[in-house]
């Protein structure tokens, strides 16, 4: 451990707040994507605050003494490239910050579908009073694909309001504390027909990329709604568009997309059974401070040579659950 | 009890479904508002299926042998006029049918406010990708004004997702099983400043009419949202409009209105911090069948001379809680 370590901070338009304590204990190099390689040379640690940046692989050649990378997100796919994966560099993430906010967002879109809020807003804009009957959420079935902390928070909240929830994870199990039953991801298609709501919150890995394709949508109920709060690349977007257009499924709430921002020519913008939000489901007021707090806690541990929190299994592509 | 009683059914555009069993056990006279007086003459019971109709008082003079009135709603204000109140005619309501659906609606609008869904929809309609930070619902405070079964279902659901909930009822109490603390309605204004969400679900009586006036809105936080799933007449609408327009409160979700349908010239239609829905918060798919089932159960009890369910205390204006 050097006397004063060099910490590189990759940021976008905003600098991370509340870094004073860290600045007192490290030489901090703030950089945007274009200066990353230069800023990595001689650096001991990298804080990827711009957590959607794809610039790390291209600058990796300059990382000549890096020992630790921390990313300000739950998903680590932007930094899981062979150079980092096969190195001794430790990778940590921001597990925990987004769990409950994303679960609230998911519950909100389920209620928005059940209570037909989008149509109410549209009718209100035309001053039309049109009574409709709406759905009850209690007793409906949700399949949560992804059994990490965010998936667990979603399961807990949906169960608290009366939905029946099952999970889909890497391995099948019958006695999961949050899900009860977890089905194996390689049997996903067998379990999709049971669900009123299918919620994608899996980490993006080579095993999960494109797992929601036409075969998956064909297996869903025509009344089912699909929710994606994981990664856009979990979905074959053209297959989703076809499924929504052809009534194969009833609707979708999408917070993440294969290309972000969602391109202007995407048909998803204008489909009336689709709710688009701009990758913000977990971003509550104060989230930036919370992210820096998670990093600062790990920074103090790193300096004190204590075990880091949220160490990613770089082969799996996520932090293994301790449960 | 006559051999075959005469039952008058007041309906609107739709007839109640599933009446075959009742038709086999009574002479059933179906009528709309304009035929009500004639249909009441000689009738033993009245089923007010058109539960928002205000025609009963004007036809009451013809009710020469009526012993029972059942209304297909939770609120009984349309039939609580002096002639019925001061008579020996028993009044029952449809307590229970709407509890959980209305609670889901309330949770839905709270999440819609917290997660800024209306703005997301508006931005989507313009294909604009604009990230925002949103609110967490966990830890927020809700004040539920009305401690009947619907208010209790709301309290249970909001508490299940992490809100702090207190109630406002006729009498203060400290150990309510659903609310914990219930404040007395005559101290409402003292407790409004504590709430992030104020939810009106009280029965409409002479004591509650207009209880949400400028004095009440002035006492709320500027960040507070007001939700009305009770009756429009609980609110002084012009005071609410002023409070919303002047930023005295942050928003409102309104399912009921002083005049329904909401008049075309109401400013509520176009206020961007207002969610308007057409008196449908409890009306789930199957609600009409459920309402007739509640009536049919009471009809069988009435014919068998057993105690009726949901007997309204005509002085209080609602079914007293048994808890």
Automatic annotation (TrEMBL), chains A, B:
Annotated Gene3D superfamilies: NAD(P)-binding Rossmann-like Domain
Query: Membrane as a keyword?
Result: no
A molecular function (GO) term? oxidoreductase activity, acting on the CH-OH group of donors, NAD or NADP as acceptor
Instruction: Enumerate the UniProt keywords alphabetically.
Output: NAD, Oxidoreductase
User: The D-isomer specific 2-hydroxyacid dehydrogenase NAD-binding domain covers which part of the protein?
Assistant: 108-281
Instruction: Give the InterPro entries listed for this entry.
Output: D-isomer_DH_CS, D-isomer_DH_NAD-bd, NAD(P)-bd_dom_sf
What superkingdom heads the lineage? Bacteria
Give the PANTHER family listed for this entry. 2-HACID_DH_C DOMAIN-CONTAINING PROTEIN (PTHR43333), D-ISOMER SPECIFIC 2-HYDROXYACID DEHYDROGENASE NAD-BINDING DOMAIN-CONTAINING PROTEIN (PTHR43333:SF1)
Know the name of this protein?
Answer: Phosphoglycerate dehydrogenase
Give the originating organism.
Allokutzneria albata (Kibdelosporangium albatum)
The opening ranks of the lineage are: Bacteria, Bacillati, Actinomycetota, Actinomycetes, Pseudonocardiales
